[in-house]
Amino acid sequence: MRTTMRTSRKLLLGGVLTTLLAATIGVGAAAPAGAAQSLRLRYKTSATGATADQVEPWFTLVNDGATAVPLSGVRIRYYFRADSPSQQYRFACSWAVVSCSTVTGTFGTISPGTATADRYLEVGFTSGTLAPGAQTGDLQLRFYRADWQTTRQSDDYSFDAAHTAYGDWAKVTVHQNGALVWGTAPTGAGDPTPTPTPTPPTGNAGVVFDDFTYTGADDPAIAAHKWTVRTNAGGPGVPGASWPKGNVSFPSIATGNQALQLKAVSDGTAGGTQQAEFLHQRKFLEGTYAARVKFADAPVSGPDGDALVETFFTITPLAADLDPDYSEQDFEYLPNGGWGETGSILYTTSWETYRNDPWLAVNVHNEVRASYAGWHDLVLQVSGGQIKYYVDGALFAQHGDIYYPETVQSVNFNLWFISGGLVGSATQRTYVQQVDWFYHAKNEVVAPSEVTGRVGAYRAAATRWVDTVPAP
Predict the structure, then answer these.
(1) Where is the GH16 domain (predicted)?
(2) Phi, psi (deg, nearest 5) at residue 471
């Protein structure tokens, strides 16, 4: 959970995100496709203004030939003029008949450029086959500036404001197995081999396991193991609340093991509100994250009813409003509701970015309205453009697209009260959240059942801590 207050959850964007790819192509005129070629592209746009928040080219690819075409060998190029030489762009697939999960998008640079094109968006497919006489159906695509400013499209080679209904369009090119088969590239744009889709890293590249066998919040092994007990002021939660070191402890639990315990306390005032957080250094990205977490529906003492958040999450800090390198993947349990909810609810949320004031959230989330009090095995898999959340071995949510993380993250557990969600009582109340263990396998997708097996093996060998994941 970010260190600023979140007041609402609003899904604003969807789709498939790929990072800017610095491919450079040479000069040379491309000939139009010959009549014998089988693929034909139809185009329309849903954003017709000279400027727009995002460029929205929609395509339908048609197979006019007599043989099936594997889509993995097909690339579509949309040519445009960047707003500045250094401007970066983001790609997203809003919806596709063939499924956005099979659609990729990368950006290339034309050198030297023309008056209407010095960049191109290259759209590809990871799978699928287009049968003779068939079409892909809608590919509802878009791209936008990484700084979220308005972009000019009236000077873009492939843009046509008059195309508000699908029609053949030769200013978008189609390439099959590296050969131009439809359309005409802008003069000087050339016709290089399309950029291959990146392959995600695979295989185990280190693990972290922690059984939380520490003597207390001042144990020097905590820092030696790259954990931090938070004590600095700030969000999330009640403005003015403190984060005392003493709110983190490591008591024995029923199994005989020790657990990380977070404590949150409030008397209904900001000065009397305390929250807790325990976090690892930033060195995590792709792979499997897992923790056994005990959620609670009621305080251990005092009146119930406060809106609070019990968490396990990964995060890259926000460097500035709408920072494109920000990312976050959350398990968040709200036992007493909050954010417009009135009852117990478990969220899994993946973030692309956000702006705090005025509030703008770019995320996607799933939720289940039910009590999750008790122990639960939470598993997060981040691999191959997909983010998967599991609860007790069952798939809870699957995200990807623009929400896939791009930079190294920290691992965090925190317990905090939602601002404005404290009950009207001056009686002190205390809530706790416990974590039995944490496990991470870098660059490896580990099934939930295998995670628990590996943790069991560590415990059988009396191994309390392992960290072979290199620092960034």
Answers:
(1) 146-446
(2) -65, 150
